[in-house]
Each structure stands twice: as structure tokens, then as C-alpha cells.
Amino acid sequence: MHFELLPQKEWLSPPTPAFRPLGPWWPVEVLSIELHEGDKLRIHRQYMMRRESLYINGEWAPATGDGVIEVINPANEEIIGSVPVGSQADVDAAVRAARAAFPAWSESGIEERIRILNELSAAIKDNTEELAQTITAEVGTPIGYSRMAMVGTPRVVTRSYAKMLESFEWEQEVRNSLIVKEPIGVCAFITPWNFPLHQIIGKVAPALAAGCTMILKPSKEAPLNAFLLADIIDQIGLPKGVFNLISGHGSEVGEYMSSHADVDMVSFTGSTGAGVRVSQAAAPTVKRVTLELGGKSANVALDDADPQLVGKMAIGACYQNSGQTCSALTRLIIPESMNDEVCEVIASRIARYTAGDPLEDSTRCGPMVSARQQTSVSGFIQAGIDEGAKLIAGGMGMPDDLETGFFVKPTVFANVTPDMTIWQEEIFGPVLVIATYESEAEALALANDSIYGLSGGVWSADGERAMAFARGMRTGQVSINGGPFNISAPFGGYKMSGNGRELGQHGMEEFLEIKSIQRPVE
Fold this sequence. Notes:
Structural class: alpha/beta
Mean pLDDT: 92
Radius of gyration: 24 Å
Number of helices: 15
Strand order of the largest sheet: 17-18-19-16-15-21-22
Helix content: 25-40%
Number of strands: 25
């Protein structure tokens, strides 16, 4: 009888020329043995990424906290790795390293920063497959989207800051004053799980360009990609102490970083509630705080829009990354006159939005990141049913043919009113809600009827009319007729969606102080 050793998943296989792991992967016990092709046995064997050290002052150092954080693959509920639990003592060590590195890095030449950023971008590109496979395993993002958005976008963002430095104006003459822009200092970054590497790079790249030093605490749900990034940063030769990585629990490590007297700035991305706690912890030291928080963004079709196009595009605008996107357009607002046609388009197309194994190219919707998130999203779906919204697709329970994993059905509700829970609260899952209006003024009022203001969309056959409507929306960015995301434009929100901006020149300027030097008037 022939025996054949095969990996459980391609990404879990041992190193090959096309797959060069940056971090330590350890084989664990055989998971199952099954008959395959008559006389062959298929032996499933899993590989895990176990990280036992933190990256502090250019070296991997043992964590001083207790225990480990296990990382679970949300598609199959299996443990795929672990990271150490850092402590306040580890934060102190990282802050000391960043503080010691700041004088030299803040005065480093622009050409040196450009070189580092370009090398970092190139290294991310070279390791695209491992990074994408790791993020898919941590978050459940469909693999194609992981390659394109989860890794491709951070690579381009990093390169964009290298390009920006070539012409950035650090000084300006204003009458008898010289206005100087200087790096703010030591920065603490607390990042989420939904776009883990993108949210990290959205802070790390502009901070490096500005001349700041930093401490990163990644999400405990998806920390492995951050450790791979630290491997890359170590390999490209960034000076010691400029970048430091601490894993751990937000209630201890994150809040302590936010309150630390030697941290000059905190940049946080996550839930609004957690952002409030970060602000409260930072307040006694009056440090700068930037927050990128929740959203409940409106997608508005004006009465001259194409109903077929509106219905088609509304699905992707809501469901990208399985709906786990802060800027997702989750509230579709349409004229009463096109309600039936738009709902018919969406109902007919939603069946193609297949949920399943995120490593399959045909999968459009992966799992929720955790059992807790699955329970939360399911609770919102039940609330929509209980409060009388019309269910036109999806609903409660697991998608067909799926028994394991933290999945929910891609769901659409129509006849939603502003008093309903699913209209008011951020669901953070593949749930689209549809409301109708009679007048354009009512449409704008509905669009602005939210405590959030992160993103938005407008559809119209008349570009100038759409622009006028977009100007009235109280939100940080608006897409007209499906205008694509721009990594050089500022990203951030109004109201309880946060403060400050990321990406582009505005994102870099968040990491700069402004000094005015007055000279004698001749």
C-alpha cells in the first residue's frame, strides 16, 4: 500500500521555493488519516506559527507576561498559532528603546527614509503569498482579496510615502517667520483585526517618513502578520528601537501604552467604545490622539440613477471583506419608485455571493473573525427579523453545506426604518439594510441620520447633482458613482467615527509638530 504525506492546506505546507516562511513554523500531530484514490492514504498534518518573543530595540526578546494568545482560524475553528502575552514592563522597555532611537532617526536624511520605505515595500511584495495566506488564516478573508487588498494595498501605501518624501515641504516662509514641521516623537499604535496589515502600515509608513519612532500592539485576533512584518523590518536593517512590537491584551498593554508619559502620540483603529477608553487613558498626559473608529455608512441612489447598476454595486460595497469593514456602505437609501427593481436585482444576485472556504477562489464571503463576532452578527439579524424588517436574502443560521467555522449568511433587509436596531448600529458583518425616500431632502436626512460619519456613496446620472449631494453628507469620504478608493487621499471620519486622518499627505502630517520661528524684521 502506498502512503502519501499531504499538507492539510497549501499554506500550511513546509517551505518550498515558492513559499519561504519568514517566521518559525512547527509541525504538530497528525490530524487525520483517510483513504484516497483507492490504495493511497491521505495524511493530514497541520503546521502552526508559534512566536515566543517580542521585538524590542532591534532584537527578539522573551515576553515577561503570563501565558500565550492562541490564534484561531475562523474558517475551520482550528488553532493555527500563538503569540506571547506582553506586560507593562515590556511596554516600558519598548518605549525606552523608541525614546533612545528618536534623536538619531528624527534627524536622519530624507534619502535614508526613502530607501527604508522602498525596501519595505519591495519586501512586502516579495512575501505577498505568505502574508496573504497568513491573513486569510487569521481573519477568514477570501484569498484573492487578501492578496489584492490585505497585502497589495499596504505595499503601495508604503511606496507612496517614499515618493511623497521626494517633494515634501518641511519649511515655509511666512513674513518674518520660518514655519518648520518636525516629527512628533514616540508613537503608540493599536491596530484592529479586520484589515490587519493595512491598518498597521497606514500608521507605520507615515511615521517612518515623518521621522518618528514607534511601538505597535496588533489585534490579538490577528497578530501573526504583524510578527511577519517585524521579521521583514529586521531584515531590511531599520535602526534599532525605531520599530518595536508588543503583543498582548488591550486592557493591559493597550491602555498602558495610551497612558504612558513617554509616549507622545497614540494612533488607534478599532471600535468606538475602545477608542473612547484610549482617549481617556491618554488625556492626563495631553498627548495627541488620532482615532479611526466605527461606521454605518449610507449608499444613496438619486432618482435618476440606474436601478440595475445600483443593486449590483450595492452588494460589493457592503460585503467586501465579508462585511467586516468600517467604511462598508451598509445602508442603501433608494427612491420608493425603484424599490421593487433594486430589491429584485439584489435578491437575484446574492446567491452568487458564495460563503465558504476562504482559500477557494470561488468564495466571495468568508467567516466572521471569531465565535463572538458570529454571535454578535447573528443577534443583529434576529433583531431585524423581530423588529419587522423584510428579509429578502439570508437570515439566521449557517450558510448551506457549512458545518464548521464562524459563518453567517449574507443577509439583506428591505423596508428598514430609522427606529430599527439594524439601521442604527454598526453590525460589522455581511448585512445590508435598505430604506426608501420620497424627496432628495429626505434622502440626505436619512444619510446623515447616524452617530457615525466615516464613508458614503452617491449614484446619479448627473455628476454635478451627485457632487452637490456628496457635499451635504456629514462624512469623511464619499464615492460618486463607484469612484475607487484612493490611497493618496485622506481617510477618516466625522462625529463618532473618530478624529484625525490616515493616508496621503494628511496622514503624514498627523505625525508632525509645527514650530514657528520668528526672526527680526529688517
